[in-house]
Amino acid sequence: MLRYFLFFCITTLFCFCNPKHSGELIELGDAILLTDKGTDKGSGYSMQNKIVTSDIGGVRKTHFTYTCIEDTDRFVHWKSMSAWVATFNHQTNEIISRTYIGQIYDNHGTPSLTIDRNGYLHIVYAPHHHPFHYRKSVLPNNSTKWQAAEFVSARDGVLSADYDYAAETQPVEGEWTYPIIKVDSAGIIHVAGSLSRSAAYVRKVDGKWQKPQVLYTARKTYSRYNVMMNVGPRGAVHVLAPDMAIIRRDTTAYYRMETDYIYFRSNDQGATFNRRGIAFSSQQGYIQGNGNLAVDSKGHPHFLAMERDYEQHRWQWHVFFDGREWQREKIQLEDLYIWDSSFTIDDQDRLVILTAANRADHHWRHASNRLLLLVGRSAEHLKIFEVVDDLEELNSWLPAVQENQFFSKLAPQLFFVMWTEETDLHGNYTRNWDTTLSTRVYAKRIILFEE
């Protein structure tokens, strides 16, 4: 009898760890509501990693970061919006905690989350041209308690613990927006982001923040809208700095972006960076960096660049370094306009792209109503899957896909995605200073089978 019981247990365990499928590449879980009080950029922005998973402590958990609105009648800086982390328990199959992290300046003060080798969570959040706020979890693989916030200025370095951030009611020249955080195999914390006209980087080594570095200052107008950063499997730190001009026309709300992407690489864990040339030139097309930077198993960087040429938003480029030079390939969806994407590269070196798209050429402020997962080893061989069945009457945007990180590796075949739904706008845009509009932020578990 014991032999049959052991056989049953082993067979069950094998089936759970090696799910079967009938020819389909993907299996979708149910949508998980993280909050129904999200900001209109609750899951943004796509250059920032939002999702980490760990099984330290014997329980597998996935942690999600997002932004919420507070109970204010009208928008007030540092009062109306906040950063949160929710935790999903894989054993009980439910969200077990939702934890307040801190106030943010406005809906651009979106958070970025990572994890170290011991399971401690690290988060940066809050700024829109301000010093960023940094916190570390008190316990490993647990998002319910956090150490006191640290404040890091791009100009002045670490600020005092009693820094009155709420007194900064206006943007501060030369300070952070959209910070990205990563931890490498040595435990060094890396942060990069935009200073409006510059791309900057800072690291924390042995518990101490070092002097921030300005890697690049724009020759055109801005170095914003997607400074990208990641740490590769071999420890190199990769940064992409945009140099862009926004060309507007009086007759339309649309605009053109003339953008060059300059590539920087550090082979000494961020102590120094070398400029490695232009990854994408505005002479090749009018683009806006779109999504995050991912690194393949060979240590080569990849990123996405979306067409941004007045009314044209038909496609995005997959741009990648092949070991000798930068290559690009077009990703275009039949009868759809691509508006935003987040992506990763899995352990099979497949592109995994979560894309928000629309059938009509609305302005980006009208968001989109299609959420698609694109999977394949090249743009030519992408398979397309609908992540949500019916979003015809909803705005869905700011997609985020779980990234492959040092200590938040994608489980074999299993990862999560996030997105924001604006259930009451029906295609209309509302400015952050006019309202504290509530939206829903969702996550979904995805099983991606081997081909």
What order do the helices and strands come in, and which of them pair?
Elements: H1 2-17, E1 26-38, E2 51-54, E3 61-69, E4 81-89, E5 94-103, E6 112-115, E7 121-125, E8 128-130, E9 132-136, E10 150-153, E11 157-158, E12 176-183, E13 189-194, E14 198-205, E15 208-209, E16 213-217, E17 228-231, E18 237-248, E19 255-266, E20 274-280, E21 287-289, E22 294-295, E23 301-307, E24 315-321, E25 326-332, E26 337-345, E27 351-358, E28 370-376, E29 383-386, E30 395-401, E31 414-422, E32 439-448
Antiparallel strand pairs: 1-32, 2-3, 3-4, 4-5, 6-7, 7-9, 8-12, 9-10, 10-11, 12-13, 13-14, 14-15, 14-16, 17-18, 18-19, 19-20, 21-23, 22-23, 23-24, 24-25, 26-27, 27-28, 28-29, 30-31, 31-32
Summarize the structure in words.
- The protein is mostly beta strands.
- It has one domain (22-448): 6 Propeller (Neuraminidase).
- Helices cover 4% and strands 47% of the residues.
- It has one helix and 32 strands.
- The strands form seven sheets. Strands 8, 12, 13, 14, 15 and 16 form a six-stranded antiparallel beta sheet that branches. A five-stranded antiparallel beta sheet has the order 6-7-9-10-11, with no helix packed on it. Strands 21, 22, 23, 24 and 25 form a five-stranded antiparallel beta sheet that branches.
- A hairpin with a 2-residue loop joins strand 14 (198-205) and strand 15 (208-209).
- The two termini are 38 Å apart.
In summary, what is this structure?
The protein is mainly beta and 451 residues long. 4% of the residues lie in helices and 47% in strands. A hairpin with a 2-residue loop joins strand 14 and strand 15 (208-209).
